[in-house]
Amino acid sequence: MSRIGILIVDDEPLARTRLRRLVSLDPDCEVIGECANGIEAVRAHSRLHPDIVFLDEQMPGMDGFEVMRAISESHPLVILASAHGEHALRAFEAYVFDYLLKPFGRQRFYESLRRAKARIACNRACSDARVADPVRTDPLPERIAVKSNGSLVFVKLEEIDWFEAADNYVTLHRGRETHMVRATMTELELKLDPALFLRVHRSAIVNLDRIKELRPWFRGDFLIVLRDGTELTLTKNHRDNLESRLLLGAA
Questions:
Q1: pTM here?
Q2: Looking at domain 4-128, which CATH architecture does it have?
Q3: Kindly report the CA angle at 205 between 79 and 117, in degrees rounded to 5?
Q4: What is the pLDDT of residue 100?
Q5: How far apart are the C-alpha atoms of 10 and 103, rounded to whole Å?
């Protein structure tokens, strides 16, 4: 695999120096650019096309969220750093790949970098094998941030059993836990890994690994039974999508 290009964006020189030193210790990565503000970052991203952007959230003139909006069309893999923990939910709603709370340690940095490298390797392998979706090029999130008792809880998407529509919100079900996130089903569906999740009804998205069985239902619909006994309706217009994703060996 060719080396991974990293763009560092932080208005503090000492922070940029530390990030550059940390990246230099990983033989798979190289810093291809450094920027001290958001305007420089937008220009550098357009010119350099980095694989990863380490982006400071709080900068004068143009903050990290404004930078992300400016470069969103190219779907960059962004790791956002902030000294303000209360911005974590906003960051994950913006679908950053990861969120580092300053001051972060070496272990947390390399954990984030390791995950980012794995995602890039997967994306490159899919591209080489010509199986990647040609329309969808944005990095898929692995976690979702939800509010619980006044705190933020980070839930791995692979642990979620299914999603349920609730007006302008979506309820996620993880075992006996439920959490609300502000999003529509369509918005959520576009951000989920299609290899793991599938829309089975206008009001339900299911984790394919949680499906235990399918039962014939009314008027061509099926009943999906999850491992925990939850029953969901599979409508006719979604049936072909599900059958194409499952290995059906029954006669």
A1: 0.55
A2: 3-Layer(aba) Sandwich (3.40)
A3: 25
A4: 87
A5: 14
